[in-house]
Amino acid sequence: MEKTGKLRRVMKYFFVLVVWCLPLLTQAAQPLKPLQIAEQFVAKSGWADMKNYLSGEAAGQARNQSLGQQIPANLERRCQLLQQDQRTAVVAVELLDSVSRNDIYLHFRRDSTTAKAPWKLEAVRSLSMTQLGPPMLKLLTEMPPAEVAQYNQKHPAAPHDFMLGNIRLWIGSDADIQQHFRRNQAAFQRAAQLIQARQYFTAAPDTAGLGEQAANSAVELQALLQPLYISRVTRRYLGCATCLEFIIGGVSGNTVGLFYQPKPEQVPAMTPDHIIVIKPLGNGWYLFKTT
């Protein structure tokens, strides 16, 4: 009888242990989702199972080390899931320390043929060709007052203060752009309303760019755009005939800016080959970058 009682107690404890561990075992057996993959990929430590979750160019770029191992160890890493549907997903990663912030974007694709790891990281993207920004900013910042006055006389459409603010946004972090938009949201909305009221951009294709030229030469609109550090308005970069683009800057198609599209169903899709990131700012406004 005593042995039977001990056996029952052991079985009871074993049963409790199994019930307690079962959720952990089930969770461990489930394939990782895009946000979980991103967090593992940018973590400071290595990732033994990394290659099972990479494909395409991402697999070629991270053969021996994860991205997290290649990033300086002092940088904090923050991951945010921006979009996920049945086939694709995008995770934004913010890298920051006490003096700087940078952003990269991880693009995923679902592989239905792989049950163990259906989600694969296929591409890592960031805004390219910004290396000219810091020396330009240094030159403008250190310019003496007399040279600033001469510069402003030669460049009335893009004076010294405008260029300083514009370049800072161009090479700045997403958080900088988001903060700039929130501080000036009312002015951005007035600019969008003026453009719509003047009908610079119609539903018909503007192959000659006449509407764009008229908008960017309108004195009243430029008076709104210049304090916002917007270089021009257009509809050329996103491939979206109904989106109103407010361009900050960029080189050779590597562009950063904001766009206005109050209808969510008409917001274009992110892809690693074109629109590398879209971040909602509220009330139909979005931050975007292209490559």
Describe the structure.
The protein has 291 residues and is α+β, with helices and mostly antiparallel strands. The protein has two domains: 34-125, Roll (Nuclear Transport Factor 2, Chain: A), CATH 3.10.450; 133-290, no CATH class. The chain is built from eleven helices and nine strands. The protein has helices at 2-29, 34-41, 56-61, 67-70, 133-141, 145-154, 160-171, 174-183, 185-198, 210-217, 219-225, and strands spanning 76-84, 88-96, 101-110, 119-125, 232-234, 244-251, 254-260, 275-282, 285-290. The strands form two sheets. Strands 5-6-7-9-8 form a five-stranded antiparallel beta sheet. It has a four-stranded antiparallel beta sheet with strand order 1-2-3-4. A hairpin with a 2-residue loop joins strand 6 (244-251) and strand 7 (254-260). It starts with a helix and ends with a strand. 30% of the residues are buried.
